[in-house]
Amino acid sequence: MNWMKYRWLYLLLSGSLIIFGIFSMVNWGFNIGVDFTGGSRLEYRLPDGSVKTFKGASVDQVQKEGIKANLEKEVGGTVTEIKFENVGPAVGPETIKKTIYALLISAIAILLWIAHQFKSIKFGVSATLATIHDILVVIGSFSILGHFFGAELDFLFVTAVLTILSFSVHDTIVVFDRIREMRKGRMGDPSEFADRAISETMVRSINNSFTIIFMLLALILLGGDTIKWFAVALLVGTVSGTYSSPFVAVSILVTWDELSRRIKSGKNTK
C-alpha cells in the first residue's frame, strides 16, 4: 500500500490535534492536582463501596476528623479512610522542575541513542519529534479533559507521560529498523522502502497495541477513581504512539530524505 502518498494528511492531522491542544492549554489551562499546588488529599470508602475524594488546602488532624464525621452524617453510615496526604507548597514547583528535566533528558537520550544506532541524525530527530508529538497530544488532551471532566495533572500523570515515551519510541524503532534493512546496499525511492516497512510491521504494531488498550479500558472501567485518569493518560498515549510511529516519524524521515536528495541533485546540476 502507498502509505507515504498521504503523508501530508498525516502531518496535517497531527498538527491540528496539537494546535487544538495548545488552544485548550492557553484558554482553559489545567486542573492541577495537589501534588503540584500543595494542599491535602483525602479519600474515603463509602458504605456502598464507592470512593469519595476531597482535595484542597492543607488540613490538620482535627479538620480531617471533622470532614469524616460530616461525611458519615451525610451518607448515614461508617466510612473508611483510604488515603490522606499533605503536600507542602514548596514541593509543587520543585516537582514541576524535575518533571521538565526528566522529559528533556529522556528526549535528548532518545535522539542520541537512535542516531547512534542507526548511524544517522535523521532517524534520531524523526523519532524524537514523534515522541514530542505524543507528549503534546497527551498534555493537550488532559487540558481538554480537565476542563470538561475534571481530569487532574498529578504524579501519576507524570509517570504516564514517561511511560508513553518508551512505548512510542519502541514502535518507531521497529519500523525504522525494517527501513534500514531494506536500504542496505540498495538504491531506490525512500517512499517505497517506507511503504513496505509500514505494511510489514503494521499488523504486529496494531495487535500489540490492542492488548494494551483492552487492559487500559478494563482499568478505566473497573479500577476506581484513584487510577482512572492514569489509565486514561496511558490510553491516549498508546493510541497516539501507535499512530505516530508509522505516520509521523516515518513521514518526517521520508520528507527529510527527499528534501536532502533534491538539494544534492540541485547542487550537482549547477
TrEMBL record:
Keywords: Cell membrane, Membrane, Protein transport, Translocation, Transmembrane, Transmembrane helix, Transport. Part of the Sec protein translocase complex. Interacts with the SecYEG preprotein conducting channel. SecDF uses the proton motive force (PMF) to complete protein translocation after the ATP-dependent function of SecA. NCBIfam families: transloc_SecF. It comes from Candidatus Woesebacteria bacterium GW2011_GWA1_40_43. Forms a complex with SecD. Part of the essential Sec protein translocation apparatus which comprises SecA, SecYEG and auxiliary proteins SecDF. Other proteins may also be involved. Belongs to the SecD/SecF family. SecF subfamily. GO terms for cellular component: plasma membrane. Its main location: membrane. GO terms for biological process: intracellular protein transmembrane transport; protein targeting; protein transport by the Sec complex. PANTHER family: PROTEIN TRANSLOCASE SUBUNIT SECF (PTHR30081:SF8), PROTEIN-EXPORT MEMBRANE PROTEIN SEC (PTHR30081). It is found in: Cell membrane. Residues 70-257 form the Protein export membrane protein SecD/SecF C-terminal domain. It is a multi-pass membrane protein. This is Protein-export membrane protein SecF.
